[in-house]
């Protein structure tokens, strides 16, 4: 049962991202401006920032996880088919936003999986489900490159529908929570969690990170096309960066044994800024591919380390609420990054926009260096 659940998790995230490298290029090819491309990419994160906390709290109050998880997988199928059949750019925006609705149930899926483990193994369970999420992203990038090379930009949308349907079949046999369910989340406790200083700080850094990530992921494929890349080349460009990110994410657990989370995050964000700057200055696909690979290596450790810090910020009995807050806040960056970057790119060009975006990574490094140090001193 656990193996099937892990495969289903990979299918879910593969379905959500198998087409993401090609969506901006496809949108542009059917008439979207760079600003509208930004809106299309932003819809995925915007709805998550609005829905993650309400859905998480509702799931807690109903003491049910599985109905939300099944609804999420079903929504991904609908979203992918809608993208494949969309007659114009505005329909792409609608169905990509629907994908964000599906992603908003991720906290319920994580909690359901963790419930199958003894309480003492909860951290290992979180790490395991996060690993299979990353596996799904690698599958998405590689499969997307292969499918787009054979069937064009429209093929990955249908591939996403198939992956989501397969995941739905696998996870439909999973039982509801098997551990003792805690009392529903109280509004007063949630408000206390939301105002915890370190959680807010870590969430702010997460939002800046996602601003950068979704701006880069949303427009590097378009920039690559301007440099002469075809569909499979765009796919492999994105796949290389994702593989690099997955490898370095796995190294994060080893890195924290030798350095503090703060120093690793700051160093990675500084290097991330340099890689984005290099991407913006690239004038050939080869240089862009190198910059993209460097970006993946630098990005990989930051997200899991921020996630760990968000959990450390509050008592163990409030960690689920903390995770929902962290995800809801960083989702602000998921929609504001591509939205703002699309407008900027319209005015100064894609290469210059990437250079501007690199400054956000520097800001995230500064906030981490100054803020986490103060939080640690306060706690010490």
Provide a compact summary of the structure:
This protein is mainly alpha-helical and about 375 residues long. The chain contains 17 helices and no strands. The chain is about 80% helix and about 0% strand.
Walkthrough of the structure:
The radius of gyration is 20 Å and the shape is globular. Helix 3 (34-62) runs parallel beside helix 5 and helix 11 (231-250) packs parallel to helix 14. The protein has a single domain, classed as Growth Hormone, Chain: A (Up-down Bundle), CATH 1.20.1250. The protein is mostly helical. Helices cover 82% and strands 0% of the residues. The longest helix has 30 residues, at 122-151. The chain has helices at 2-17, 23-29, 34-62, 66-85, 89-103, 106-114, 122-151, 155-171, 187-194, 197-226, 231-250, 252-255, 261-281, 285-299, 302-312, 319-348, 350-379.
What's the helix and strand layout?
Blueprint: H1 2-17, H2 23-29, H3 34-62, H4 66-85, H5 89-103, H6 106-114, H7 122-151, H8 155-171, H9 187-194, H10 197-226, H11 231-250, H12 252-255, H13 261-281, H14 285-299, H15 302-312, H16 319-348, H17 350-379
Query: Between the first and last Cα atoms, what is the distance in angstroms?
Result: 43 Å
Question: What percentage of residues falls in helices of 4 or more residues?
Answer: over 70%
Q: Please name the fourth-level CATH homologous superfamily.
A: MFS general substrate transporter like domains
Q: What is the N-to-C order of secondary-structure elements (H for helix, E for strand)?
A: HHHHHHHHHHHHHHHHH
Biggest sheet features: none
Percent strand: under 5%
Give the integer mean of the pLDDT values. 86
Low-confidence stretches: 374-380
SS summary, helix count: 17
- Specify the CATH class: Mainly Alpha
Look up the CATH topology.
Growth Hormone, Chain: A
Shape: globular
| Alpha-carbon Rg, integer | 20 Å
The count of DSSP E runs of length 2 or more, i.e. the number of strands, is: 0
Structural class: mainly alpha
- Integer tally of domains: 1
CATH architecture: Up-down Bundle
């Amino acid at each position: 049962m656990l193996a099937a659940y892990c495969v289903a998790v990979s299918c879910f995230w593969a379905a959500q991202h198998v087409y993401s490298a090609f969506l901006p290029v496809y949108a542009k090819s059917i008439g979207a401006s760079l600003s509208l491309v930004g809106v299309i990419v932003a819809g995925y994160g915007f709805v998550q920032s609005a829905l993650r906390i309400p859905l998480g709290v509702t799931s807690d109050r109903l003491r049910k996880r599985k109905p939300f998880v099944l609804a999420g997988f079903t929504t991904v199928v609908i979203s992918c088919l809608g993208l494949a059949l969309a007659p114009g750019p505005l329909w792409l925006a609608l169905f990509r936003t629907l994908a964000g609705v599906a992603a908003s149930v991720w906290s319920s899926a994580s909690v359901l999986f963790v419930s199958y483990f003894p309480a003492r193994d909860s951290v290992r369970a979180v790490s395991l489900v996060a690993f299979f999420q990353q596996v799904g992203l690698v599958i998405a990038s590689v499969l997307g490159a292969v499918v787009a090379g054979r069937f064009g930009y429209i093929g990955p949308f249908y591939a996403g529908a198939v992956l989501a349907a397969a995941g739905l079949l696998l996870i439909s046999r999973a039982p509801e929570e098997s551990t003792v369910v805690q009392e529903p989340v109280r509004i007063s406790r949630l408000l206390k969690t939301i105002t915890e200083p370190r959680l807010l700080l870590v969430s702010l850094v997460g939002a800046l990170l996602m601003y950068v990530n979704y701006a880069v992921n949303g427009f590097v494929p378009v920039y690559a096309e301007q440099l002469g890349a075809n569909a499979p080349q765009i796919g492999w460009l994105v796949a290389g960066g994702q593989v690099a990110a997955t490898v370095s994410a796995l190294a994060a657990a080893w890195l924290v044994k030798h350095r503090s989370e703060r120093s690793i995050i700051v160093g990675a964000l500084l290097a991330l800024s340099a890689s984005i700057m290099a991407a913006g200055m690239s004038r050939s696909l080869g240089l862009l591919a190198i910059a993209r690979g460097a970006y993946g290596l630098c990005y990989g450790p930051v997200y899991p380390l921020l996630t760990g810090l968000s959990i450390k910020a509050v008592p163990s009995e409030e960690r689920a609420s903390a995770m929902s807050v962290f995800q809801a806040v960083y989702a602000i960056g998921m929609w504001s990054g591509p939205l703002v970057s699309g407008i900027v790119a319209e005015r100064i060009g894609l290469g210059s926009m990437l250079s501007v975006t690199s400054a956000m990574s520097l800001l995230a490094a500064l906030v981490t260096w100054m803020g986490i140090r103060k939080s640690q001193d306060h706690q010490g």
